[in-house]
Amino acid sequence: MSLSKETVEYVANLSRIELAKEELEKISKQLESIIGFIDALRSADVTDVEPTDHIVPVNNRLRSDEPRGSLPIEKTLANAPHKDGRFFVVPKVIE
Q1: Could you state, in order of their start, the residue ranges of all structural domains in the chain?
Q2: For 80-93, how does the pLDDT look when each residue is reduced to its tens digit (9 = 90+)?
Q3: Is the separation of the CB atoms in 8 and 28 below 8 Å?
Q4: d(C-alpha 65, C-alpha 51), whole Å
Q5: What does the pLDDT read at residue 57?
Q6: Interacting residues of 32 by C-beta distance below 8 A, sequence separation 6+
Q7: 30: Cα separation from own chain's centroid
Q8: Distance between CA atoms of 65 and 45, rounded to whole angstroms?
Q9: What is the pLDDT of residues 48-61, one digit of tens each?
């Protein structure tokens, strides 16, 4: 598939990108190369290839989910700038 300079200029205009003549030439060639590669991928025969979500088999190592004690209130509030008893004090944000 060929890509005209007019198409690249049109897309650049839509993207609000200003391209110099040299940049337009360079980008047109690069985009043509990319589109050519995509066309080559499309022509590959993948009828006997199973779909995959990862190239190598992945086995997640998960630990068992067991409940345990939470952080004590004193340690939780130790670095709080403002606190009131067992609670954090935060600024009111109601408008």
Answers
A1: 5-42
A2: 999 999 999 999 88
A3: yes
A4: 32
A5: 82
A6: 1, 2, 3
A7: 23
A8: 45
A9: 888 887 788 888 88
What whole-number distance in Å separates Cα of residue 8 and Cα of residue 3? 7
How many Å apart are CA 5 and CA 8, to the nearest integer? 5
Q: What are phi and psi of 39, to 5 degrees?
A: -65, -40
Q: Which CATH architecture has domain 5-42?
A: Orthogonal Bundle (1.10)
Structure tokens at 75: 């340690």
Q: Which two tokens stand for residue 86?
A: 């067992």
| Rounded distance between C-alpha atoms, residue 25 and residue 10, angstroms | 14
User: What pLDDT is recorded for position 5?
Assistant: 86
Hey, what are 5's tokens?
A: 């300079």
